[in-house]
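In pairs, describe these two lines:
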Amino acid sequence: MMTRSSSKEIVGVIPARWASTRFPGKPLAEIAGRPLLHWVVERVSRARSLSRVLVATDDERIRDCALACGAEVAMTSPEHPSGTDRVAEAVAGLDVHGVINIQGDEPLIDPELIDSLAEALSDDGARWEMVTAALAIHDPEELADPDVVKVVFDAEGRALYFSRSVIPYNRDGLAFGDLVYWRHIGIYGYRSDFLARLVETPECRLEQSERLEQLRALYIGCRMRVIESDHVGLGVDKPEDIEKVERILASQPGRK
């Protein structure tokens, strides 16, 4: 793993757990001959902005897999309610400027997106406390899907709200192509001090209603930057998704 040092040091953390309602043992699921976690670590390690890449887990099987692919490992408590809490524990003893939280089930994550998040997080002029990303929605069916989280942001890129509902509301019935809707991409960067504050804050009612953790951050006044991206990605949520990922990997140059 990379070991560069900098006054603006940004660490990448991949939270990974064994227990999953829909897909137990997912980090070790085989994709094109290698565990899912290997693909994620490989992609994240290509990001030029990260000084270190850690896998945060509470499971020895995942720890062994991470070490086998050259990743650093932070063993964390099995009691964490979310990946964010796991990430916070993993970096609690590190003197770093910021942290990028990368989903452990994203084998196609774009390293350039990670670098864009890290760059925004390092911008002291804007004083961003969190950064995340969004993708323009081109399929009208996604608007009605509550699993597709929508986000609205201001002219500066500061997040205003996230919702499972359609936002903004189209009061005048404008054509779909006349409005721009944004799909939230679930990757986050945090300034280290804000991450510690976030996990110490109880859930707010907005978060409880939408079941969206990022609303807790907005509720306490977080200055969160949303970066516009064209990276679609593909998360492995259930076993059926493996075949989709393998098809994409097989189509990439240099892979058979």
